[in-house]
Amino acid sequence: MAHRTTAGLASIADWAGAVFMAVSLALCVVLAGPADGATEGLDGLIANTLDDHALAAAFAGKHLEGVYADARHWSESYTSNGTLSYRDAQGEWSGDWSVRRATFCTFYQSAALNGGCFVVAQRGANCFDFYTVGPRFVAIASADDIRAGRNWTARGWYVGAKPSCPKSGRNLA
């Protein structure tokens, strides 16, 4: 019986080790993201979304204001060196912004505010729709919604210029 228990424990230990290795490998794949810099789910970029170069050009040194899908207002200034200043009804925070794999990312120095990454679609000369992306840089909204300007997370425009956003409101599906 003791031999059987030991053999059973060895089998359990082997199985647990294999599960641990599989989970570790899966986590590495998720954190690494798509290979070769590809933006999985956005092959060829969805019409009107901005690539890395266009994102940097659109936001570096700019000040935007806008609304979230729930109609809360926000304002954010982006320096050319990658820092930012964010303001909403709750206060003001500093942080950093970056561009990676056709996504625009903002992160804050306070745990009171969540950051994230977004696919950005430009709607005219002065309107940007921000769509949250998941950990593999894939937009949570569908490609059809992004093309149609629906289900955005936030919408923004340059301060001091007339917004060119569609008049149809939030465009939620």
UniProtKB/TrEMBL annotation:
UniProt keyword Membrane, yes or no: yes
Record's keyword terms, sorted: Membrane, Transmembrane, Transmembrane helix
Residues passing through the membrane, by range: 12-33
Annotated protein name in UniProt: DUF995 domain-containing protein
Organism: Jiella flava
